[in-house]
Amino acid sequence: MPHIRNFSIIAHIDHGKSTLADRLIQWTGMVGERQFRDQLLDTMDIERERGITIKSNTITLPYTADDGAEYELNLIDTPGHVDFSYEVSRALASCEGVLLLVDASQGVEAQTVANLYLAMEHDLTIIPVINKIDLPQADVDGVKDQIEKELGLDPDQAILCSAKEGIGVDEVLEAIVQHIPPPKGSQEQPLSALIFDAQYDSFRGAIISCRVFDGEVKPGDLIRFMHNNSTHKVEEVGIFGLQREPRKKLTAGMVGYIIAGIKTVSDTSIGDTITLEERPALKPLPGFKEVLPVVFASIYPVSADDYQALAEALEKYKLNDAALIYQKDSSAALGQGFRCGFLGLLHLEIVTERLEREFGQSIITTVPGVQYRFTLADGQTITVDNPMHYPDPTRIKGSQEPYIRAAILVPERYLGAVLKMCMERRGVNSHFSYPTPGRVEVTFEIPLAEVIIDFYDRLKTITQGYGSFDYELLDYRDSDLVKLDILVNGEKLDALSMIVYRTRARDWGVRVCERLKDEIPRQMFKIAIQGAIGGQVISRSTINAFRKDVTAKCYGGDITRKRKLLEKQKAGKKKMKMVGSVEIPQSAFVAVLKTENE
Amino acid sequence: MSPWLEALEKEAAFCQDRFGVFDTLYLGGGTPSLLTAGQMAHLLNSLRRRFAFSPNTEVTLEANPDDLNQMKIGAYRDLGVNRLSVGVQSFHDRELAFLGRRHNTRQTVEALEAARAAGFANLSLDLIYGLPGQSLEGWRKTLEQALAFHPEHLSCYQLTYEPGTPLGRRKARGEVIPATEEEERDFFLFTSRFLEDHDYLHYEISNFARQKGRLGQAPVINPKDATPTLTLPPQGGGDSAVASLPHNVQFTANDAQFLANEEFCPRLINNQGSFNRKPKTENRKPYFSRHNRKYWRHIPYLGLGPGAHSFQEGVRWWNVASVPQYCQSLARGEAPLADREILSPEQLRLEALYLGLRTREGAPLDLLRQTRGWEKTLTNLQKSGLVEMRRDRAVPTLEGFLMADSLPLYFMDADMGKDMAVTRETPLLLAPDP
Question: Which of A226, A339, A465, B120 could form a Cys-Cys staple with A329, CB 3.0–4.6 A?
Answer without folding.
Answer: A339
